[in-house]
Amino acid sequence: MESMRDINRVMEREIAKGSCPLKLDHIEFGNYSYQEITSKEKLLEMLSYLLRIGDFKQYAGKTILNNVYMDLRGKKPVFKRTKTAIERNNIFATIKRYAKKLKLQYNGDVYLEMVRCYFDIPQENLEKCRYTYQGNETYVFLMSDKYIMALYTHCLVARKEAAIQGVQVDGFTEKEYGRVRLENVGDVLFQALLLDDIQLNFDKIIAMEITIFIGK
Predict the structure, then answer these.
(1) What is the per-residue DSSP string for 8-45?
(2) Could you name the domain of life of the organism this protein comes from (predicted)?
(3) What is the three-class DSSP state of 147?
(4) Other CB atoms closer than 10 Å to residue 89's CB: what's the count?
(5) What is the pLDDT of residues 154-174, one digit of tens each?
(6) Rounded average pLDDT over 47-58
């Protein structure tokens, strides 16, 4: 992996070319963060929702192009943006085959993690990003592929740092704290950063980083 200094330099160059200057401020865990996936059907439903395909294709608006999805090249994870439903369906098929090979038991060994990623953006840039879609006001952040992938790298690094630092969350059980610390994690089945479904909270933009973990 490139150093974070090199990644930041890439981001600066892409901002100069016109990418929206969105920057990660911090990530956050909460009572929404963990959900066990109890069956193959639930897993496939969740993957379909995250990829905006099948019964959830109506959620695939224009901003889905900003989402980052994990795919597999052999057994090696690769992260990429997609332009078409065909690409997302191909990712679905790949992850489905990999899940079959893992012979999952769905007895607590498969769970979903949702982490809120808080991003900063200068107010003057935010005003330029207002957009009306299907009658609803939202925001569209125009960013190059290099910029989005660098932004996602920041999210991944922040998640690893949270595991090392031992984040404290009110109401978490010891089992949930173990998940934050990435204890007893056997594999990552799927991961995504959903930039097509954002929230605005005062001066922060919030997007979800989603991971489906396989426990040992």
Answers:
(1) HHHHHHHHHHT----EEEEEE--TTSEEE--SHHHHHH
(2) Bacteria
(3) helix
(4) 16
(5) 999 999 999 998 788 888 999
(6) 96
* Angle (nearest 5°) at CA 208 between 204 and 212: 160
> Rounded to 5 degrees, what angle do the CA atoms 206, 200, 181 make?
20
| Global confidence as pTM | 0.91
Which pair of tokens denotes residue 86?
């065909």
- 69 is written with which tokens? 């999805």
Virtual CA dihedral for 96, 99, 104, 108, nearest 10 degrees?
A: -90
pLDDT of residue 166: 79
Q: Which two tokens stand for residue 31?
A: 């009572």
Place of tokens 């992850």: 95
Burial category of 2 from C-beta neighbours within 10 Å (exposed 0-12, middle 13-18, buried 19 and up): exposed
Q: Of 130, 126, 156, 136, which is closest to residue 24 (Cα–Cα)?
A: 156
Phi-psi group of 116: left, alpha or beta (phi > 0 → left; psi -120 to 50 → alpha; rest → beta): beta
CA-to-CA distance for 98 and 22, rounded, in angstroms? 34
**Ramachandran class of 100: left when φ > 0, alpha when ψ lies in -120 to 50, beta otherwise:** alpha
Q: Which two tokens mark 200?
A: 């605005």
Residue 58 one-letter amino acid: Q
Domain ranges of the chain: 2-213
CA atoms of 118 and 162, how far apart (whole Å): 14
At 1 the three-state DSSP class reads: coil
